[in-house]
Each structure stands twice: as structure tokens, then as C-alpha cells.
Write a structure and sequence with these properties.
With about 170 residues, the protein is mostly helical. It folds into 2 domains: about 5-75; about 80-173. It has helices at about 5-20, 40-75, 80-165, and strands at about 30, 35. It is rod-shaped.
């Protein structure tokens, strides 16, 4: 057998001997005058590692708390005066715009009311003109009829006078 294999076999044998010595039920290990079985040592190791882990976690939380406390104590509120100034300008512009819109709305309502009044006035004038023109048309038609009747009457009278003049025996001589 090569030398390396012998060393490995030797190490395995030593490990098995240690397991027999320390892992058997009846094995008792004495530490600082106290005797422990392997099971008690495992429980003690688990308990100690849990306590140490808890202490470490508590320390980390406390350290984070202290860091956060320092950050909170050192916190300086940012200077927002520029933002406040811009907001004030925007608010002023909004108020001016609102005022302008209200003023324009007032003018528009005035113009609308004036237009309504003008339209009503024009409608009344148009109605009056229509009435007058219809009345004038009726009067004109009546006058035309009267003139025609007079013309007919005159025509008859002229015809009668012409006939009398033709019939007059003295007229031809």
C-alpha cells in the first residue's frame, strides 16, 4: 500500500476510536470538574449557540437603533423656501387667471344680454315694419281698386259724352 493510503486509513481508525470514546452512551466527558454526556454537551452547545445568536441579533438591532437615533438627531429639514416661493407664484398666477376668467365671463354675459336686447328691438322693428308694409299694401291695393273704379267710371262718362257728342246733330255741321 502506498504511504498516502496508510495515512488515510490511520486517520479513519483514529476518528472511529474517537467516536467510540466520545459518542457512546456511557461516555462521560469531564470539563472543569463537571461531567457531561455527549447528549448533554450537544444540548448545552445548542443552548449556548442560541443564546449567543440572540445576543448578537440584539446587538445588531441595538446598533441599528443607535444609528437611526443618530440620523434622526442629525436630520436637518431641507430648505423648501424656493419651493414655497414657486408655489406662491403659481398660486398668484392662478388667482390672476381666475380673476381674468371671471371678468371675461362678466363681459361675455353683458355682451350676451346686450345682444338679446338688440335682437328683441330689431324683432319689434321688423314686426312693426311688416305690419306697416302689410297695411300699406292693403291701402295701396284699395287705392288701386278705387283708381280703377274711378277710371272705369270716368271711362264710362267719357264714353257717354263722346256718344252724346257723336249723336248730337249739331256737332257735325
Amino acid at each position: 500500500m502506498p504511504e498516502e493510503i496508510k495515512d488515510v486509513n490511520k486517520k479513519i481508525d483514529e476518528a472511529e476510536a474517537a467516536v467510540k470514546k466520545y459518542a457512546s452512551k456511557d461516555t462521560v466527558i469531564s470539563i472543569g470538574g463537571y461531567e457531561f454526556t455527549p447528549a448533554k454537551l450537544m444540548v448545552a452547545f445548542t443552548l449556548v449557540s442560541s443564546i449567543l445568536g440572540g445576543l448578537y441579533g440584539t446587538f445588531e438591532v441595538y446598533k441599528d437603533y443607535q444609528n437611526m437615533k443618530k440620523k434622526i438627531a442629525d436630520y436637518v429639514t431641507p430648505d423648501l423656501t424656493e419651493v414655497h416661493e414657486k408655489l406662491a407664484v403659481i398660486q398668484k398666477q392662478t388667482e390672476l387667471t381666475k380673476s381674468s376668467v371671471q371678468e371675461a365671463t362678466g363681459y361675455a354675459n353683458e355682451i350676451k344680454n346686450d345682444l338679446k336686447r338688440d335682437i328683441r328691438r330689431v324683432e319689434s322693428v321688423v314686426d312693426s315694419i311688416e305690419r306697416n308694409s302689410k297695411e300699406t299694401a292693403r291701402e295701396t291695393a284699395k287705392d288701386v281698386r278705387d283708381v280703377r273704379n274711378e277710371l272705369k267710371q270716368l271711362s264710362k262718362e267719357v264714353d257717354v259724352k263722346i256718344q252724346k257728342a257723336i249723336d248730337n246733330p249739331l256737332a257735325g255741321k
